[in-house]
Amino acid sequence: MEYNILNKINLINGSIVFTPLGYLLNSNDCDTINANYNATYLNWVNNNKSDLENGNINISVFFDTTPEVYEAHQVTTSVDGMGLNEITDITPYI
Amino acid sequence: MPLVEGNRTADVRVPAGSSWSFSHNQNTGSDGCLVVIIASPAVSVSSVTYGGQALTNVRNDSTSYSTFWSVWRLNNPPTGVNSIAVNLSSGSWNSTSTVCYSFTGCSGVGNHNFNNTQSVNQTTSITISDNSMIIGSVISGNATSAYIQIPQGTGRTLQWNHNINNYTFGGISPSLTSGSKTIQGGSTATNIILAVEVKELAVVAKRRIFII
């Protein structure tokens, strides 16, 4: 079995922090969350990559308008011992 | 004890800095080994730790896709859930792929080879010991009809497929017989390919001599 870890991404004290919230088993839910991640955070990062690399813009600009973003790109065959539960309602994360 | 593939964790993320970490569960059992493959666009990997223990760098290649490809291993890693921590040589805003395989009954990484020439349906070959497994990994211009064959002609399930500016995907064979093995992978675009042997711990035959 494969578990898709749902991570929250936000900015804490100037650093990007990934926080695992639980796992998803429904691949359609993963696609929905990742499509939103691609269209928002990843798209913003890619459009501003040079400025981010040069220090001309800070990632905080993105999080000023979108405090949290979610992604489910991490896949594992075991969640034993991670203290994670299955998430079936993705409404809060899209 | 035979070589057994255990837990696997595959992760792709924008580091947004020069380090990141995530959890992975190393199986219990004797002669454990952890193998990690990282595809990092533009920026090389400087170190990897698991549960605070440093992994040994097996290879670190600068590829024709402007992506660094590195292989790391740790024999007898701590078991259970521990943190994989990756450190880059500098900060990165490129999506970066990390794949972790746990094994038991393993003596570590054996031979490995890498074909850096971009070609559709690229191949590479390695010579392996009896009962070794092969991890095959591809970096390609796209992931359309992506596949991996280990050995060539035998398709394996893609266990990761990550968008990292280009794409990286791959899988693993079961235990194979010894000899030279060619692996093949690709998509509808050109690609390069990497093969990594994971070796079974050789059982030393015991012989008793009776002196009369």
Biggest sheet details of chain B: 5 strands, antiparallel
Oligomer: heterodimer
Radius of gyration of chain B: 17 Å
List how many beta strands of chain B DSSP finds: 18
Compute the separation of the termini of chain A in Å.
Answer: 25 Å
On the 0 to 100 scale, the average pLDDT of chain B is 96
Helix share bin of chain A = 25-40%
Which segments of chain B are poorly predicted (pLDDT under 50) over 5 or more consecutive residues? none
**Model regions low in confidence, pLDDT < 50 over at least 5 residues of chain A:** none
**Main sheet record of chain A:** 3 strands, antiparallel
Pair with the most extensive interface? A-B, 23 and 23 residues
Strand content of chain B is over 45%
Q: Helix coverage percent of residues of chain B?
A: under 10%
Number of helices of chain A: 3
Number of strands of chain A: 3
Q: What series of H and E elements makes up the topology of chain A?
A: EEHHHE
Question: In a nutshell, what does this entry contain?
Answer:
The complex is a heterodimer of chains A (94) and B (212). By secondary structure, chain A is of the alpha+beta class.
Molecular structure report:
The complex is a heterodimer of chains A (94) and B (212). Chain A has helices spanning 27-47, 49-54, 60-65, and strands at residues 3-12, 15-24, 68-76. Chain A has one domain. The model of chain A has no long low-confidence stretch (mean pLDDT 97). By secondary structure, chain A is an alpha+beta fold. A three-stranded antiparallel β-sheet of chain A has the order 2-1-3. Chain A has three helices and three strands, in the order ββαααβ. By secondary structure, chain B is mainly beta. Chain B has one domain (4-200). Chain B contains no helices and 18 strands. Chain B has a five-stranded antiparallel β-sheet, with no helix packed on it. In chain B, strands 10-18-12-16-15 form a five-stranded antiparallel β-sheet, with no helix packed on it. Chain B has a four-stranded antiparallel β-sheet with strand order 2-8-4-5, with no helix packed on it. The radius of gyration of chain B is 17 Å and the shape is globular. Chain B starts with a strand and ends in a 12-residue tail after the last strand. Classes of the chains: A alpha+beta (94), B mainly beta (212).
